[in-house]
Design a protein that fits this description.
By secondary structure, the chain is mainly beta. The protein folds into 4 domains: 107 residues, Immunoglobulin-like (Sandwich); 65 residues, no CATH class; 87 residues, Sandwich (Immunoglobulin-like); 58 residues, no CATH class. It has 4 helices and 27 strands. Strands 2, 4, 5, 7, 8 and 9 form a 6-stranded mixed sheet that branches. A 5-stranded mixed sheet has the order 14-20-19-16-17, with no helix packed on it. It is elongated. The termini are far apart.
Length: 351
Amino acid sequence: MLNILTGPENSKDIDYTSEDSFLVHWHGFIDHESGIKLYRLGLSHRCLGKNELYNFTHIPDVLVYREMPYSEQSIRVPANFTGKRYVTVIALNNAMEPSEAVCSDGITRDLSLPEIRNLSLQHGRWSQSIVCSETDVFLLESDLKKVKLQNTNSCQRFCQSVSETPTITDLLPLNPETKNDKNVSDFLCGRVHLYTNQTIVYLPNDHLYLQWDLLETVSQVNDYYVGIGYDVTEYGSPVIAYMSTERKNHFKMRHDGIGSNELFYIFIKVSSKAGLDNIYTFGPVLIDQTPPLGTTLQKVSIENDQIVFGWEDTTFYDEEQTEQIDQIFFQIGTMFYLFVVCTPGKHLAGI
């Protein structure tokens, strides 16, 4: 059976590459009467015909033309192209009669990195922040979604000192349900802090459940891998080594060994069939399993038929959360309770 395969001998045929060259090998050409004298090979965006390779003159469609002796049945071909190309081979016997042309199933050279979007971490929360890009301004909501703000004068002034757009801007999903007008955008740009790479993501337990979407690429994804490290620089060799998702665009695990007081980073590696890897860093993440704490209110009084109470900045605190508690809810009934919700962790404490 006549076959032309791309890739090393004794290996599977490859359909994608990012290299500057690739191997081609073939087998099955025979001539019982006069024997094989030589082979001719052409690389083009289409399969070539027998006559084109036999009566070869300059053909614009042919990127590479090679002539090899019968003793060779493989050759390295330069890949000075992008997109899909085909290899065609004919054999010539000692009487210089050509065989039928045999064409490969094609190889695609892809230099683009595989990319993911719409990353979500179940139960993950952080404090609201604003992220700036060259043309857009986004509010990063506490549930790890983003909302596009109006590019008002206030937001433009707020973003003037930003030199580059963090990767997180493209990674997070857009919340289609929330829309902010100019007044709201002005207010948010004046009140919410700027996102930094040190913004902590809080989890209420040690169960990780990640999901993401693949941005369409030329070459297919070979696999996804997830690893965990204590430092942002450990993406090359995480403490918890990369684990395959078996090509699934989600990942579940319970990350034993990381304490509730330790910051860690999640690394997501996307590998394409062209042999290119792209690594995304998400974090820092902190497991926050305890509710906020508080001391008793010093004074509660009734003035003009109204209940009046107050507290200091230090009345309510969280031993794990670095940000200040910025949301407080209260309920009044037959007994007095004050319920505090800790943003972004949203754990309740009663007093």
